Amino acid sequence: MDIKANLEVIKKSFPNQDCKLIAVSKTKPLSDLKAAYEAGIRDFGENKVQEILAKQPEMPADTRWHMIGHLQSNKVKHIAPFVQLIHGVDSFKLLQEINKQGKKIDRIIPVLIQMHIAEEESKFGFDRAELEEMLSSKEFAELTHVKVIGLMGMATFTENADQIRKEFRGLKQLFEELKGRKLPDFVDLKEISMGMSGDYKIAQEEGSTMVRIGSAIFGSRS
Ligand SMILES: *Cc1c(COP(=O)(O)O)cnc(C)c1O
C-alpha cells in the first residue's frame, strides 16, 4: 500500500476541499500511521480504547485522536485526558459519563451525537425520539464538561447511492434544524461527521464536514 499516494488521490477527489479527513487506522500497524503522519495527516480515528492507548504514546505529540466507534462507558476515563473528539456518543448515559470524567480532570471534552440514520438495526445511535427526550431533559441542561460540536451518522451498507444520499441528507436536515433551535450554550453545532471509504463523495455533496476514511487509505482490514 502506498499510503501517501492513496492520500493524494483521495484528497484530490474531494467534492469539498475544506472537508476534514480523519484517517481511520484501526487494526493497522504503527508503521502505517507514521506513513500517513509523514504525508501530513494529523487526525486519526480508532474504535478501540485499548488500541488508542497502545498507539498514542508512540506517535508525535501533535497527533489528534478521534474515537469513532461504539464506546463503553467504563472505558471513557482512559481516553478522557487526550481524546480530540468522541464521534460515537450513542446514548445519554454515555454522554453523562463523558461529562463526569471531564469534570474529574477539569477538561471540557468535545463530542458528536451519533444519530441512527441507516436501515440496519445493528448500527448504533439515537433515534429522533431519544434525541428529543435527551435535549428536553433537565439533566442535559446541567452538563458542564462536554461540548457538543455536531452530529455523526453512518449510512446503510448498500450499493444504492440514492439510499445513502437520502440518509445523509436527513442528517444534514436535522443538523440545520437543531442549529435553529435554542439549546444550552455547550451545544455549538459546527461539524457533521459522515462518509467513509465507500460513500465519502456523496457525504460531502450532502454537507459533511468530516469524513472518516480507512480502507481507501490503508487497504482492507483482515
Ligand atoms: C471503520 C470505520 C470507518 C472507516 O471505514 P472504511 O470503510 O474503511 O473507510 C469509519 N467510521 C467508523 C465508525 C468505522 O468504524
TrEMBL record:
**Coiled-coil ranges per the record?**
none
The UniProt GO MF terms for this protein read: pyridoxal phosphate binding
Pfam families hit by this protein: Ala_racemase_N
Q: Does the keyword Secreted apply?
A: no
**Where's the Alanine racemase N-terminal domain?**
3-221
Gene3D superfamilies in the cross-refs: Alanine racemase (3.20.20.10)
The protein's UniProt keywords, in alphabetical order, are: Pyridoxal phosphate
Its required cofactor(s), as named, are: pyridoxal 5'-phosphate
Against InterPro entries, the record matches this protein to: Ala_racemase_N (IPR001608), PLP-binding_barrel (IPR029066), PyrdxlP_homeostasis (IPR011078)
Q: Where are the transmembrane segments?
A: none
Tell me where in this chain the PTM N6-(pyridoxal phosphate)lysine is found.
Answer: K26
User: Per the similarity annotation, which family is this?
Assistant: Belongs to the pyridoxal phosphate-binding protein YggS/PROSC family.
The record describes the protein's role as:
Pyridoxal 5'-phosphate (PLP)-binding protein, which is involved in PLP homeostasis.
What this protein is called in its record is Pyridoxal phosphate homeostasis protein
Which taxonomic lineage is given here? Bacteria, Pseudomonadati, Bacteroidota, Cytophagia, Cytophagales
